Amino acid sequence: MEPTDKKPRPEHENTDQSLRQERERTDDEFSKKRDSIGEDADAVVQRARAHADMSLKVARAKADERMEQSEAPQQERQSVASERAQEDVTLRQERATSDEKLQEERKARKRALANLLRLEREATDQHLLLERERSDEALAARDDFLAMVSHDLRTLLGGIAMRAAMLVKNASADEAGQRTRRDAESIQHFTARMNRLIGDLLDVASIEAGRLSVEPRPEDAIRLVRETVEVFQPSASARGISLDSEVARDSLLARFDHERILQVLANLLSNAIKFTPEGGRISIRVEPSEAEVRFSVMNTGPGIAEENLGRIFERFWQVLASDRRGMGLGLYISKCIVEAHGGRIWAESKPDAGSTFFFTLPGARTPG
């Protein structure tokens, strides 16, 4: 079963990654700033030393000129040269000592800053861990409550659906009976929709908790596509939409959880039926692609603006904020399911030119 153990929450992983990246940027900026300040200070020192060396050189040249004019004895000139050499040695030593002290001071400041950052980051990490514990406890309580409420709601919905089915079955053939039949079928439709919404909320809670469960095994992808088309054919026909499948072989093995990938295809087809106008067409295709199996769901609906293609798989996102035909969870859940299988999902579309949703799953070798 993949996975059975609780994984870190996705938002925790995202926060940790963002925090690491921010700290790396901070360290890089500190290093660049420190190096820049050090280089500027070194340049100032070098200019001052160069100016001092030039002044000393000019002063010595004038002294040499005066000795030449006064015809100073050779012994005096040698004594001056010896003093100058000693002064130069002393100056170089003083400068070397000064440079060494400056480097030690810089290293000490660097260590102090590193220690300060470490202490600050340890305090931040400790605070973050504490907040996460509190948040996880609150989320666990929420998940327990949601599981309890959803169980009770599904039990009640099951009872409503059962009674509605009995009304449909026992409806008389007269006008009143047919009206009762239509009303009961509407009730069945609404209870099915409510049941799907409850399922979506539970899936989102599982995803947030890192507990989305999938059980991949070798399955026939073409059989799954045909099953999906058969289930959705009545809904598409009722809307005046053509629904078909494009397959080039009798079977195609892939590794996937049958019910979960059926859920993905159901989400994609539900959206396609929702947005495809009467007289439009929806087509499901499945084909091998290197070591993967690629599914695609094409529709002739209004299409999706390019700037929205990167957002349609976000949680609770909808093209129209006023759209109340769903909660904007289907594509988000589909993305998480496909990625839990090790696959990818994406969309290609242009306004007024329809849309095609693709997803891939790992292929499975044919036995023998």
TrEMBL record:
The regions listed as transmembrane in this protein's record are none
Q: Which residue ranges does the record assign to the Histidine kinase domain?
A: 148-365
Judged by the first EC level, this protein's enzyme class is: transferase
Gene3D superfamilies in alphabetical order? 1.10.287.130, Histidine kinase-like ATPase, C-terminal domain
Q: What is its EC number?
A: 2.7.13.3
- From start to end residue, where is composition biased (Polar residues)? 71-81
Lineage: superkingdom: Bacteria
| Listed SUPFAM superfamilies | ATPase domain of HSP90 chaperone/DNA topoisomerase II/histidine kinase, Homodimeric domain of signal transducing histidine kinase
Q: Where is this region: Disordered?
A: 1-42, 57-106
User: A single GO molecular function, which one?
Assistant: phosphorelay sensor kinase activity
Q: Which reaction does it catalyse?
A: ATP + protein L-histidine = ADP + protein N-phospho-L-histidine
Q: Where is the composition biased (Basic and acidic residues)?
A: 1-37, 84-106
Keywords for this protein = Kinase, Phosphoprotein, Transferase, Two-component regulatory system
- Kindly give the InterPro entries that the UniProt entry links to this protein: HATPase_C_sf, HATPase_dom, His_kinase_dom, HisK_dim/P_dom, HisK_dim/P_sf, Sensor_HK_Regulatory, Sig_transdc_His_kin-like_C
Name of the molecule in the record: histidine kinase
